[in-house]
Amino acid sequence: MLSKADLEEVLQVALRGGDFAEIFIEDKKSTKIGCEDRKIERVITGHEQGAGIRVIRGENTAYGYTNALNKQELLKLAERVAKAARENPVATIALERRESPVKLPVKRRPDEEGIEEKAKLVKAAEEAARSVDEKLVRQVTVGYGDVTQRVTIANTDGVYVEDERIRSRLSVNAVAAEGQVIQTGYESAGGTQGLELFDEEKPVDLGRRAARRALLMLNARRAPAGRMPVVLAGEAGGTMIHEACGHGLEADLVQKGLSVYANRQGEQVASELVTVVDDGTLQGKFGTLRFDDEGSPAQRTVLIEGGILRGYMHDRITASRDGAGLTGNGRRESFQHRPIPRMTNTYLAPGDASPDEIIRETRAGLLVRRMGGGQVNTTNGDFVFEVTEGYLIQDGEATVPVRGATLTGNGPEVLKQIDMIGRDFGFSIGICGKDGQGVAVSDAQPTIRIPELIVGGILEEEGDYQ
Amino acid sequence: MIEVEKLNERDLVAAAVEDAKRYGADLADAFFAQNHELVIEVRNEEVENLKVARESGIGIRLIKEGRLGFAYTSDLRRDSIRETVRAALANARIGSPDLNNVLPAPPEVYPEMELEDHRLQEIPLEEKIRLAQEIEKSGRGYDNRVRITEQAGYQEAHYQVTIANSLGILASYRGSLCGGYASLVAGDDGDQQTGFGLYFTRKFDELDPEAVGREAAYKAVRMLGARRLETRRTAVVFDPYVVTNFLGLIASALSADAVQKGRSLFAGKVGQKVAAEGVTVIDDGTIPKGLMSSPFDGEGVPSQRTSLIMKGRLQGFLHNSYTGARDGVSSTGNAARSSYKSPPEVGTTNFYLAPGEKDPQDIIKNTESGLYLTEVMGMHTANPVSGDFSVGAAGIWIERGELTTPVRGMVIAGNILELLENIDLIGNDLRFFIGTGAPTIRVAGLTVSGQ
Hints:
The structure holds two protein chains of two kinds. By secondary structure, chain A is α+β, with helices and mostly antiparallel strands. Chain A has helices spanning 4-15, 71-83, 115-132, 197-200, 203-218, 239-246, 251-255, 316-322, 355-360, 411-417; strands at residues 20-36, 39-57, 60-66, 96-97, 137-155, 159-178, 181-191, 225-232, 276-279, 300-305, 308-309, 330-331, 340-341, 345-348, 364-376, 382-394, 397-402, 405-410, 420-421, 426-434, 437-445, 448-456. The termini of chain A are far apart. In chain A, strands 1, 2, 3, 4, 5, 6 and 7 form a seven-stranded mixed sheet that branches. Chain B is α+β, with helices and mostly antiparallel strands.
């Protein structure tokens, strides 16, 4: 094992190459169980170790990583990473252990539970999905995963953090078919919790919901095409807010001029109904952290308040460049990657309208009851997100279900348009990708109305345009 | 028994397989992979990020009474490997028994391949940094509206794979690749648009940094002033990169695993027409310059060329040993492992839509009006089971055979089977983006949603 004194020595060597050096040591145990075709097919356990060393000099970063976790190898790596730069005078480093205000108690540690217990959760979800309709539900795929990640983070500012992150998740994908029509339904749950997560998010419920959505979509019409009012239900999850403004408020993109929200702090960038928050401290959520991957404590950061842009999400580099405070958003996928500004749990705060009233006050449009994935081009603000359960709104009522379609809009334009915000609230989870790194996040929003979005459906007739 | 702390890769995988047999596995394989990586990212002519990395690990798969278990570790000491074997055995206990869980026997011969640029590691870092800087410089100098470097860089990787199984396979190969990429932003009148360029190869000498930078710049500049058009049904010309995005959807449906599990839209259609006459889709793990070429797949089965769709007719599917056994056919050498951390699934190697005869310029010239589609967004939301897609779209509007105004913020939607049937022109400009290749194509009618 590597002592604090060992790490001080490694950091000292690394610091010869720059103004700041950091080491991130990771030990990760994970389990995955996959079930398909009524069979438990993939049972995988893994153990991975490694360390990443980062040296920053001015605006330049050198990064190196290795699997070999002994002092000699780390000293060699520190030397290699530092080599790119000039010789600095030797400084002394005194590491001091930090604590986080965030407590994340775990009741049933995944690394202490038997694999049979986990397989039971998978089977429960699979059987529940099948039993919704033995005939029409043709295939059910269930994936279980847990990760127990131990990290040690130390840097030349004296930060020393030892942390453990535990995450569990379960996902169900159901395929239903009738005649030529084949449709799917997906549900997932995940959190910074152990197996107790599934006392609340019952595998049986996930399985049933996935199967019911696949069946519902069998009878759905094709989604309409073109511009229309859209109501996003609270239960739909938070993908829209993640794409429409979350990424654009990450400070690295802002500072490089790659965000439509650059240089707009203090300005009205959204309707005054809109407040957007990133909060890494929410108990048990998928994006929750005690510390980010640079050893800064997680926190709640108000990004937009009453429509006014208040601040951005920072890592150490962007915060020092802006002279801003750390926000606990410096995250990385693993020791193989350098940290960059990332979201944690991001949400559009609830308002006071009744969700039913929002639908009632919409003459015609689309109601989105579940969102899937999305993507954004932060440079021009255009974003897309997927609708996995949608209904036409006719005369203030949700009527026929429509098949999946992508909705598109422009972030700043859409945020200004939002004209009704409900008092309900719903979360969705995901692995968010940026610069080739995936990190666990959650997103949430209440029921909202957007007067105009482009719905990417199908026109049935040739020449039916203009 | 003599304890050896540092074994070479061949001894290491052989020892892991021996351990598995000794602990009671009926069949076992061990897969070792090692990677060295170098990444240089430049911005405003300075090296902004430099990454050097080395990584290795072993994955152990075993079968006991028809049940499959898998475990991996990055800790290559003998006791850690034994512990990993025991974990894989414990995992096998809860796996469902399936007699199709089999391993391949050693082949007579593996294809000979040269996958490595031996000179690459000797080229000094400074030369590689210079190459990354040239990419940025040529892009930024292309047009004075190119204002921001989102990314410009050089990347190289050296890898080594060694595999052993309890039926006698023991084989390994080494390879390297290198390449440059750029993502640049052009700005004009408050409007900002991005464009990217990329080129990867096995030989350093084949890299042309200026071409990469110019491509990114040209693509960014031509999107300036893009706007949203009205909703319509129209012809769409797909550029090769966009076609490769759609090929990903087709690839998953052409896996025998998807077919056997009832989630492929090609199930039951072998011998039938599933695409327009000119459409031929091939997977070929033996292409000499292919970046996904290798002598054998993730189970040690020799790589091969497999025709999947020939002149519009479905020929068959991609197999690994499991799906082959289940269908009573041979593996096509398509057991894919994304790293030592995953057991072999069914996956593609060099997967491409074969080129046709049309000059891509003529495809545009022959299009009275339509969308030249150059970017899609949210491709991961397309449904590989139903084939339905609805994705963000940007490109350039074609009017009377000429590229006119750039468009963005729109959505195109349809079904992949309908799309395949409606391909009416195929270009001769096959281009690979790492492991997937395609030419320009035209699709007769698709809904493009906008105003």
